[in-house]
């Protein structure tokens, strides 16, 4: 069966930039973090599988992660828990200022970044 990702990339062979966002919403301890970590790993495994089968195309994968709690945005890839500002950019739309963006080297690198997210999402939230 063809995956959604495969159909998207096959239908849009000239797309040079594609950004996907996934949001999880739910009460405390309902499984948001658990679910997001699983979805991210399966999605990226699919992406790397596609890349391996399409050597004629060049790909750059970038990864960011943030948490929104009580209307405060925090960077899950940063040890600094200072709230981040949302800006309205006329061309890019809503932008999270100074959000860390890591260029993914491989799936092992992603696994390491996800474990950083697990640690930082467990931080106490500043009052
Ligand atoms: N589908 C699942 N199967 C097994 N364990 C799960 C599942 N979903 C969540 N858990 C476990 O339940 C606990 C709470 O889950 P998790 O931390 O993902 O919740 P959360 O919604 O992110 O919580 P918070 O809002 O406090 O950040 C964790 O110990 C997690 O491992």
TrEMBL record:
It comes from the Eukaryota. ATP binds at residues 26-33. One of its GO terms (molecular function) is microtubule binding. Coiled coil: none annotated. Gene3D superfamilies: Kinesin motor domain (3.40.850.10). InterPro entries: Kinesin-like_fam, Kinesin_motor_dom, Kinesin_motor_dom_sf, P-loop_NTPase. Keywords: ATP-binding, Motor protein, Nucleotide-binding. Residues 1-127 form the Kinesin motor domain. One of its GO terms (biological process) is microtubule-based movement. The keyword Iron does not apply. Belongs to the TRAFAC class myosin-kinesin ATPase superfamily. Kinesin family. This is Kinesin motor domain-containing protein. It comes from Heracleum sosnowskyi.
